[in-house]
Q: What sequence folds into this?
């Protein structure tokens, strides 16, 4: 397994920064996610997580620092959270931290929905 490192950009579309580290199990999604081909972008991330949870069997420390994501990104984020919950249910050690603007009520509502929809514990960290 290889690490995933993607430099975020804010050109015509908004691509989040991605850092998935195989050795440490540290994962980061940061910035804004508004992509032309959302599924194409997120598929390798989802596949990496599925492989990690089968092969590595070590702690996953997932940090979200997304300031914005569109509807298609939201579906992919939900898929990521479901993978983390399945891993947790099988005894995997998972920590999910989500940093968000405490004045962004839409983001807070979306995060609460993720918790309800997946059952995964998300540490909400306002800034």
A:
């Amino acid at each position: 397994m290889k690490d995933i490192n993607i430099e975020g950009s804010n050109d015509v579309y908004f691509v989040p920064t991605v850092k998935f580290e195989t050795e440490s199990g540290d994962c980061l999604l940061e910035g804004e996610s508004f992509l032309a081909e959302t599924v194409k972008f997120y598929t390798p991330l989802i596949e990496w997580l599925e492989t990690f949870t089968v092969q590595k069997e070590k702690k996953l420390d997932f940090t979200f620092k997304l300031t914005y994501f569109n509807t298609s990104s939201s579906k992919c984020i939900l898929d990521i959270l479901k993978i983390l919950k399945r891993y947790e249910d099988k005894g995997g050690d998972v920590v999910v931290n989500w940093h968000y603007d405490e004045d962004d009520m839409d983001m807070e509502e979306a995060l609460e929905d993720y918790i309800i929809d997946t059952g995964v514990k998300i540490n909400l960290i306002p800034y």
